[in-house]
């Protein structure tokens, strides 16, 4: 973030969890601060930055403005579509994006907000709390505010600050665990180990924040398929997240894992082995109350 960065208008990032389809997207950070995972090509060649708090607050206010304008357009004419078309006339690209976001959120019920991009918890707790406070003030009807976070970042946050974030209104986090097998985590350059995953997950739960942990069958290839299932299940048994979400492994040509496939360093599991791995994973979950869901 540049100290003299000028506000360029409303922003939205490229991704959200599937379960946040009806949420308002508010961009707090840009891209990913780690950006080295071999299976991910989303943020490659993109610089990470934290947006100034004031810019995020202006984004929130912009959504409020357009929701009020939409409501006024509906009340002034029987032809709602004509009123919306008139509202779009002459808007900048950023305001067009804000208007579209407001309309989408209105249709979705206006009850949930997702803070983008890949890891908003890397922001200073006090700054994130200021954003949460403003969000709750402007949209008091919101029931859920959620975000992606990395285990590495969460593990470094104090229990006191996690509680403060929860009290400010952050009530669900999505963590891309992907695997808890150290050998797999090391190979895919995840930048975290099993124990850190456990510490982070428990910290979130202790604060009273809902937790979604993601598991990616097949990420260990044929060699570490069993370890991927058993070690990840063991970590989740120690965390007891609210949701365990299954992610499908995809290996497009623009990710580093594709080169490993070509070189023979990684052998992709076939459909049968993937199914067997998923079965082993599920039957190894014990003593927890988590809901297992498949997003893909």
Estimated helix fraction: 40-55%
Average pLDDT = 95
**Poorly predicted sequence stretches spanning 5 or more consecutive residues:** none
Strand order of the largest sheet: 1-4-5-6-7-8-9
Portion in beta strands: 5-15%
Q: Radius of gyration in whole Å, from Cα?
A: 21 Å
**Separate helix tally:** 11
Number of DSSP E strands: 9
Shape verdict: globular
Secondary structure category: alpha/beta
Main beta sheet: strand number and arrangement?
7 strands, parallel
| N-to-C CA distance | 34 Å
Q: List the secondary-structure elements in sequence, H or E.
A: EEEHHHEHEHHEHHEHEHHE
What does this structure look like?
The longest helix has 24 residues. This protein has eleven helices and nine strands. The mean pLDDT is 95. It has a seven-stranded parallel β-sheet. It has a two-stranded antiparallel ribbon with strand order 2-3. It has 296 residues and is an alpha/beta fold. Helix 1 crosses helix 3, helix 1 runs parallel beside helix 4 and helix 4 runs parallel beside helix 6.
């Amino acid at each position: 973030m540049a100290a003299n960065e000028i506000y360029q208008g409303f922003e939205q990032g490229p991704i959200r969890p599937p379960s946040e389809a009806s949420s308002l997207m508010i961009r707090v950070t840009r891209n990913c601060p780690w950006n080295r995972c071999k299976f991910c090509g989303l943020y490659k060649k993109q610089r990470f930055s934290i947006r100034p708090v004031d810019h995020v607050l202006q984004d929130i206010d912009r959504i409020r403005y357009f929701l009020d304008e939409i409501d006024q357009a509906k009340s002034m004419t029987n032809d709602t579509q004509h009123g919306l078309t008139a509202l779009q006339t002459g808007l900048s690209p950023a305001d067009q994006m804000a208007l579209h976001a407001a309309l989408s959120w209105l249709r979705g019920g206006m009850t949930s907000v997702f803070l983008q991009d890949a890891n908003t918890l890397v922001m200073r707790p006090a700054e994130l709390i200021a954003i949460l406070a403003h969000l709750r003030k402007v949209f008091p009807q919101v029931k859920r505010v959620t975000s992606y976070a990395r285990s590495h970042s969460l593990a470094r946050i104090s229990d006191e600050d996690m509680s403060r974030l929860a009290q400010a209104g952050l009530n669900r986090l999505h963590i891309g665990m992907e695997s808890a097998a150290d050998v797999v985590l090391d190979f895919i350059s995840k930048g975290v180990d099993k124990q850190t995953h456990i510490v982070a997950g428990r910290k979130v739960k202790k604060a009273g924040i809902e937790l979604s942990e993601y598991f990616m069958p097949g990420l260990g290839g044929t060699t570490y398929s069993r370890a991927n299932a058993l070690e990840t299940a063991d970590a989740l048994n120690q965390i007891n997240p609210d949701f365990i979400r299954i992610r499908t492994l995809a290996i497009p040509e623009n990710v580093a894992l594709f080169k490993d496939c070509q070189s023979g360093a990684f052998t992709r599991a076939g459909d049968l082995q993937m199914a067997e791995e998923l079965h082993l994973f599920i039957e190894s979950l014990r003593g927890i109350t988590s809901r297992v869901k498949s997003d893909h």
